[in-house]
Design brief:
This protein is of the alpha/beta class and 302 residues long. It contains 12 helices and 8 strands. An 8-stranded mixed β-sheet has the order 3-2-4-1-5-6-7-8, sandwiched between helices.
Length: 302
Amino acid sequence: MGLFSRLKQGLAKTRERLAGGLATVLRIGRSVDEALLAELEEALLLADVGPATTAALLEGVRAEWKRGRVTTAEDVRGWLRGQIAERLRMGGTQLARALEGPTVVLVCGVNGAGKTTSIGKLTAWLKRQGHGVVLGAADTFRAAAVEQLTVWSERSGVDIVKKHQGDPAAVAFDACQAGRARKADYVILDTAGRLHTQENLMQELGKIRRAASKAIPGAPHEVLLVLDATTGQNAVRQAELFHKVAEVTGLFVSKLDGTAKGGAVVAIRDQVGVPVKFVGVGEAIEDIEPFDPDAFAKALLG
């Protein structure tokens, strides 16, 4: 199954909600007027595109309409597709790569967002690209997280550095050292999904970042935040919090196949200003796609 097909399948619920509304609003032969714009606003909000992003898109459509550049419903659909793709393209969508030595990817996100599973998928994807990977089980606060990551490492055939009880920063340091010694291309560090307070979370992530940098100068080169697409606007709030705490550089949107709220991806990119780099579109280990803004916009809007 190709990239577009996977995204189209993964976005089925969102597309049904959004395209279902749009099919009525943007029916063939309809001219643009205030009534169409009002209905369009409702359709975008129902897909969880978010009030701020919806308002910005509507303002753009209205401006183009008044300039005479958008006059029909078909024009609006094409304009929206282009605008959404352009917004999602900003900041780049490629995974960072260190100039020398292993690229260190620190992965964060709340418990339940699919963080460890997403790491497993990313690891398998990198292996399929021919890269060597070392995993660091730095979420030492949950034994289940270490066990789950161990299973993923075995499925992908990669090395894992772990301690059943220990300092997460020490695990991160050892994993980075192991990645360098084994000439791996990537070191992926799992982190705690929830601590008692934001201050504790900030301190712990800070320790891990410093440990990684001590082992490999410039690390971490990428900080991926895993967000559960099914939480819609709650994912936007999570992204804002973690961005402040962890200096997030990219997003991995999980569970895109199980939601009618996939439009939140657009809202997250707009409001947080961090590019989406990967999406999870199913349960299988291969159900991961590097993010393609054009394919996403096409799959979202039809």
